[in-house]
Amino acid sequence: MDILIQQIINGLVLGSIYALVALGYTMVYGILGLINFAHGEVVMIGALSALTAIGLLVPSGLPGPVVVLAGLLIAIPVCMAVGFTIERIAYRPLRNAPRLAPLITAIGVSIVLQQLAMMGWGRNYHTFPALLSVTAHKVGGAAITDLQIIIVLTAALLMAALVWLVTRTRLGRAMRASAENPAVARLMGVDVDRVISFTFVLGSGLAAVAGVMVAANYSIAHYAMGFMLGLKAFTAAVLGGIGNLGGAMLGGLLLGIIESLAAGYIGDLTGGFLGSHYKDVFAFFVLILVLVFRPSGLMGEKVAERA
Amino acid sequence: MSADPKLKARLGIALIGVALAVLPFAVGATFGNSWVRIVDFALLYVMLALGLNIVVGFAGLLDLGYIAFYAVGAYLYALLSSPHLATAFPALFAVAPGWPVWAVLPLGALVAGLFGVMLGAPTLKLRGDYLAIVTLGFGEIIRIFLNNLNAPANITNGPQGINNIAAAQIGGHALNRPLELFGVMVPGVHLQYYFFLALTLLVVFVCVRLQDSRLGRAWVAIREDEVAARACGINTRNVKLLAFGLGATFGGVAGGLFAGFQGFVSPESFGLLESVMVLCMVVLGGMGHIPGVILGAVLLALLPEALRWGAVPVQQSLFGKVLIDPESLRLLLFGIALVVVMRWRPAGLWPSALRKRELAAHGEAA
Questions:
Q1: What does pTM read for this prediction?
Q2: Which chain A residues touch B225 with a CB distance below 8 Å?
Q3: Which ipTM score applies to this complex?
């Protein structure tokens, strides 16, 4: 029972990180109808650039949370710039090309980003210094650390802010209009190109925060960390219903919990045949199941294929 | 006197045939036998690229996990031609299985084809981008399983991989040993070359015939417009499954050859980046155009060797040290090539006439 509660807590923490990354996928998909393959690499760049900044600031003797916050504030603009560039290089010139084209360029960009990161940060794992309090609080036999509480609360706050931005502001209305019908939105005076750029920048900002969270949660970061994370966050977005903000959040949380329960119980369920190192496989099975039985996701509407 | 075009074509084919026949000796004499080995690998990549070309180029289904089929073929060959199973399960296998190559390769093709259909079946309803992610995940899953299936039952020997794989035997002669033929010593790599060349030519032949067949036309129809293809009476489900299955088959054969050639397989050889490299060959050469794909495969298979040979000394003389190691330089170039080709030459370096026309028309309409 304690293990169950503990795994659910871990799942919630993991899930709020997935949700933040999934939002980036889903926003871009909502407007362009395309998957941003390089999104996982943006998360990786967020984590590593924040770690570099943190590494430089640690000797200054500032309090831990301030250092982490400073790292975050550096990672966010870096990632936003990367997201903006990705859109300019891989997506904008190919907006009217066959569907396969932007996918292939995005894969190319993602490999370039990964290799550049490897050259800049090396092949080794970078450790996240112990700056944040990991005091554990007891919750019904399970433990939750301050760091985990901060991650969940920050993610919740950011998601609330995003929903406010999309539903209540002028810019949000322009985003929704562009997603609905770009041609008509343009006729109504919406600068669709700017809206698309902004969407990439916004998603990348969230990815930066998620990257720092992942690094803090697992206390490591690595140049190849973006790939699996991106795949899982995409699964979360599909699970919730791609193109739907609430869906991405729900999908992220669900996937986090499923994965952590699977990691905790897979050994018992299969009689020791499969161990917890198969947890990465679970996200993928979830993806296949959703795509086969409910391709529109949990909260998505059924939409006809746009020819 | 007018040259008969048919005669000219025959002469061309004969010339190419002679060139291919003497190639290993010419390469071996000028650059050394290690380059013949590289040429052998290039042939494997040609097979892989042609297989992926069926899925991506003909049917227009973006498959990012293609290397998984290569892995399936390679591991199947490894299990059936090495002492691994006998050491891991002495109760089941009294002697090490040593299947003949002509039985293992078709079996590998069949099993890989089945995996292809298995992957294709749940993804049939999906559009391009979803499919890309699912296939990418599938490739990763296969690698995770290969990496972890050493416990509790040691099937794949985990990250260490399987070694002591017997080389392919033809007529009782193992292809990794030199053979004396008419008083000339033919080294093992040369024999492997002829073996691979024969199979590559077979693959090319099958591809050409497929392209002009009813099935090939159905694939192109689906690539261009799936709804219209269905309206024309094409059974899109079966035709797509066939694309996955046949593409995977070639991957399986190439995998088996790889295992026998290398004598060793490990999960490391089957990562995502390998899938991307094969995709890069297809895209760079010209999606859907067989000669283009062959060109792309040969170019990219030789690139890493050329880089190892050229980039290191150049960097050393320019900067005094190696700034970018050839491996990351290669991947960096792949990434850039994908972007550049898609933006400025979407039909590839050597596009088919039809494809070129289509893409040009598309650009004008936009």
A1: 0.85
A2: 307
A3: 0.85
